[in-house]
């Protein structure tokens, strides 16, 4: 109950629509760690796609992230049944401050769609351990 109250306070503070409140169709939960949070959101995205495309689509689901992203993403993919070869850690370098560029993501997604795969998750990375990249 305390969690619902605090998250409703936060939604109101951010002036989010009423749909985000626990009294509506919204609400939320507080995750204890970033690793927990990434697992929960990856599983939610995976399940949404499997409802849309069918359970046999699991082998076609593709995840994208910067090569600066914490290893928690790869662990979440493993727990979520995402094939290791479908976890794309896109190479970054100093020319873009170790950040993903829209062009890099667009190219990877386009190649996967052409190969019949289903892009479903792009991991945002804020403040990496190795480079403090956003």
Automatic annotation (TrEMBL):
It holds the Pfam family Pyridoxal_deC. One of its GO terms (molecular function) is pyridoxal phosphate binding. Its cofactor is pyridoxal 5'-phosphate. GO terms for cellular component: cytoplasm. The keyword Phosphoprotein does not apply. One of its GO terms (biological process) is carboxylic acid metabolic process. Keywords: Decarboxylase, Lyase, Pyridoxal phosphate. The keyword Zinc-finger does not apply. Belongs to the group II decarboxylase family. This is Tyrosine decarboxylase.
């Amino acid at each position: 109950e305390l969690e619902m109250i605090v998250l409703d306070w936060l939604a109101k503070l951010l002036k989010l629509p009423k749909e985000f409140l626990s009294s509506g169709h919204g609400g939320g939960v507080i995750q204890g760690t970033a690793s927990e949070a990434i697992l929960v959101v990856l599983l939610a995205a995976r399940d949404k796609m499997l409802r849309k495309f069918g359970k046999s689509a699991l082998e076609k689901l593709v995840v994208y992230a910067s090569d600066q992203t914490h290893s928690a993403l790869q662990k979440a993919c493993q727990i979520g049944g995402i094939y290791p070869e479908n976890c794309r850690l896109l190479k970054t370098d100093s020319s873009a401050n170790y950040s993903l560029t829209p062009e890099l993501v667009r190219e990877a997604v386009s190649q996967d769609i052409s190969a019949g795969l289903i892009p479903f998750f792009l991991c945002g990375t804020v403040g990496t351990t190795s480079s403090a990249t956003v």
